[in-house]
Design brief:
Blueprint lengths: L1 H20 L4 E3 L8 E3 L15 E35 L9 E4 L2 E29 L1
Parallel strand pairs: 3-4, 3-5
Antiparallel strand pairs: 1-2
Length: 134
């Protein structure tokens, strides 16, 4: 009786090892007297997330977005509900060659802008002349 239990336990351990390594249907027969155990692994739970490419530098006259994120932001005026990061007050940011951007979300390494209007602005360092909360 003890050897029969040992065989079943060994069979179950072998089945568990095979299940963790297998990707298709696996049939394991732990001993001659027990019926075969059929194990069908479920669908893969691997999720691949592809992030959008990050622009290295963005220059804009006006940025309108829900979310603006960068390592460093230089702006003359920021109007936002939530600002996260170290804020430094500056006199003037010289923005040349910018355009108006209206996007749901903007992510860049560095942002130069005359004016940013957003729900959230997040950056490690934020250099701004005029900061207003919505």
């Amino acid at each position: 009786m003890k050897s029969h239990r040992t065989a079943i336990v060994a069979g179950i351990a072998a089945a568990a090892a095979v299940v963790s390594a297998a990707t298709a249907q696996v049939v394991v027969q732990p001993s001659q007297s027990a019926p075969p155990v059929v194990i069908q692994p479920g669908p893969s739970s691997t999720t691949v997330v592809q992030s959008a490419p990050v622009a290295s530098t963005v220059r804009a006259d006006t940025i309108e977005a829900r979310d603006v994120r960068a390592q460093t932001i230089y702006a003359n005026k920021i109007t936002a509900s939530k600002v996260t990061g170290t804020v430094h007050q500056t006199k003037e940011v010289d923005v040349k060659g910018g355009r108006d951007l209206k996007v749901p979300s903007l992510v860049a390494s560095v942002i130069y802008a005359e004016k940013i209007e957003a729900d959230t602005v997040t950056a490690n360092e934020i250099f701004v002349r005029d900061l207003k909360r919505k």
